[in-house]
Every structure is written in C-alpha cells, then in structure tokens.
Amino acid sequence: MDSPSILLVEDDPELASIHTDFLDDEYQVTTVHSGETALETLGDEFDVILLDRRLPVVSGNEVLAAIENRNLDCRVALVTAVAPDFDIINLGIDDYLVKPVTRAELRETISRLLSLDEYTEHKRKLTAKRLKRNLLEVEKSRRELHGSPEFVELTAEIDELEAEMESIAESLDVENIESRL
Known about the structure:
This protein is an alpha/beta fold. It is built from 7 helices and 5 strands, in the order βαβαβαββαααα.
C-alpha cells in the first residue's frame, strides 16, 4: 500500500520546508507556496490537505471553496497563525491548528484525519450491511436466514466491521473527538 498523500499549502518557504521535513519520511508530501498553485495542484490523489489560511492573492478560504466545489474526497486541516473564530463554523475543515506547530502535532493530526476517514468508511459499509440484514430479518423466516450461507456471511461481516470500528474508535478516542466537535 502506498503511503498517504499530503498536500501542504504554505506561503512561507522556510516554514513549508520545516513542515515538509516533519512529514516526508512517512508521507508522500507535495508542497506548494501559493493558493494559485494549490488550485492547480488539487486533485483526488490527496488524502489530507494541510492549508495555510492566510495566503496572498488566493486565500486558504478560496482554496477550501474549490475543494468543496470539486467534491474532493480528502480531509483538510487549516494550519494557520489566525486564531479560530466563529467563522470556522461554516468552513469545510476537519481540524484547525494554530501555528507554531510541532512535528508531533502535525503527525498526530494527519494520523487522526486518516483514521477518521477509515472510521467513516467503515461506518458507511456497516450501515449498508445492517440495513440489508434488517430487511432480510423482516422478510425471511428464521429457518431461511440460518440456512442461508449468504446471510451467515453477512452477519459475520457485520460483527467484523463492528469490531474494527470499535478498535478505530478507541485509537481515535472518539468520545473526546466528538466532545471537541
């Protein structure tokens, strides 16, 4: 499996270099220094975008709008010197870091965002499988259900997904994240 792909958008070249050095041993990092270049670079290949909010010419907010308009499937964290205010409520972001940030903070944020993405995907799959199971339980007799290898496999898949989600939730400390959100 390829390492996760990160787009780092930071207009300060020195800070961009430091943040890239923090990450490039574990992630595929693409670093750009402007909102314009970020707009040209944006694509589905990125798992996480670390975005400075204050960028000259094309702001981080404009890059966020482009991410939403293009329906890109990625997680976004603002990494900015701008203290959060109520305007973040309507921003399409998954996390917010106030500079300066440490190597550990950047890596923990990326790890959390990737795990959150995995958790969300598992939840989607689990919901679909539970709906199918529930429909079959309403429409079929117990004997038909227990005699069906497909239904037995479906229930086993549900059990497996539930266990995986519990494990991911523990690693994410979902209760603390949900209380933070």
